[in-house]
Amino acid sequence: MIAQKPEATPDLAKVLAGIRSGRAAPCYLLFGAEEFLVQSALESLLDALLSPEERDLNLFRVDGEAEDPARIAASLMTAPLIPGRKVVLATGTHLLQSKRTLPDLERNVREHVERNPALAVRDFLQLIHLAGWVLEDLADDGWKKIPAEEWNRTIGGEGGADREKWLPRILDACFTHGRGAVQGAEETEPLEAALRGRFFHPLYPKEVLCLNMC
Q1: Which residues does 211 contact at the CB level (< 8 Å), separation at least 6?
Q2: What is the CATH code for 12-94+184-212?
């Protein structure tokens, strides 16, 4: 969990104590391998940030499958429904993904292509966006034009050798389920500006963004 100081990673108890003493950070990141623990920490964080009454009206949830950085920024700049702190929660966020996460995205695609095609499609579209590839170029066996060695070098994983086992299936799923919009880096600029404090609503400077990567 990342709070106010990037060089420090305080434990949950210290983060909650800071919020209760009036020192809430503008952004919190929750992540980890144990989903139950992450969800438990999220509930504790929300309880500290918002009272039950505020939580009903001043908590705005955004799912990672439909998140739009520009809309999140606009929400942060909009006054809450009732006076007080407003929290925007982005669950399963892709906002912090970069080329370093390509091996994880590939692994997720391979694991979910059968059990959860919608999730696999989302991760695959993000993967090819970060890798600089175009979905249409990979269709109709176009992916075979990328040698396995180049695939592994770009992704940083080991899926190039057995792509024929899962790549045709995920490509079919992409065109069956529809290719959702994959946000470009330039589309995150309004959100980055908001998080730097330049565009927060002047009358209600208490907005908090919670990013949950699980």
Answers
A1: 27, 28, 29, 30, 90, 93, 95, 96
A2: 3.40.50.300
pLDDT tens profile 99-145: 888 998 899 899 999 988 888 888 898 899 889 999 999 999 999 99
| Whether the model pTM is above 0.85 | no
d(CA 7, CA 214): 23
Encode pLDDT of 60-103 as tens digits: 888 766 667 778 877 777 777 788 888 888 887 777 777 888 99
Q: What angle do CA 169, 174, 178 make, to 5 degrees?
A: 150
Domain ranges in the chain are 12-94+184-212, 99-177
